Amino acid sequence: MRILITNDDGINAPGLKVAEAIAAEIAGPGGEVWTVAPAFEQSGVGHCISYTHPFMVAQQDERRFAAEGSPADCVLTALHHVLPERPDLVISGVNRGNNSAENALYSGTLGAAMEAALQGLPAIALSQYMGMGTKNLDSVFEAAAAHGTGIVRKLLDKGPWDEGKNYKVFYNVNFPPVGADKVRGVKATPQGWRHDAIFSAEPHQSPSGRQFLWIKGGPQATPSEPGMDVTENLAGYVSVTPMRADLTAHDHLAQTTEIFS
Fold first, then answer.
1. Residues 135-188 pLDDT 10s
2. Can you give the pTM of this predicted structure?
3. Where found, per UniProt (predicted)?
4. Residue-number span of the structural domain to which 44 is assigned
5. Is 208 labeled as ligand-binding?
6. Is 8 annotated as contributing to ligand binding?
7. Total domain count, the chain
8. DSSP track, 32-67
């Protein structure tokens, strides 16, 4: 098996090593693990691609490359420049911080998985929720490291994976903010919404008198609706959410059709 690894935290991020270890275990002794990751952190860039300017790619080691682009750029770089053949699986992560609820819409980790799915490949995004339960651990990625391989294997073996659809499914996996032994199980969940966690812009003045804006995130410890990803993560469960790149509000399509008929 050939597996491609990428992330949005950058080529030197500790979570990338966890993803590489998971991939190595799944690929097996005769498999290949390739890493093409951003040269520097690209958190929050979503599904952005460098459409209007070129970027440099540098080989760091055998099957290991750093690209001065977004996570989606890294997938395109791997598929159309670096890898000798298409991979059997793309793993994006393990992200430092959750990509549950509205975070999924901004996430470069999910942007890479989405691009892989658009290219017709099975893709899984892995993210580690942070909180008081991870604060004093030797590794904040303990839950992801202990449970990631089993979850990825189960998704690979049992799917479901789309065949013959334009927008193929990819999976968003979030590990709870607890140690490995405190994980209570795995639940399939819809994407949630934290009503107080929207992003904002905060102005600051530099020593030179110029004004700059910092983008500011909201609190991450507020549950979403019952049964949704954030609520289950905060209760100690790994959430697995099947996603597609199709943004159509299908429940409003019929009524919209009536308006213009």
1. 999 999 999 999 999 999 999 999 999 988 889 999 999 999 999 999 999 999
2. 0.95
3. Cytoplasm
4. 2-193+223-260
5. no
6. yes
7. 1
8. EEEEEEESS--TT-TT----SS---EEEEETTEEEE
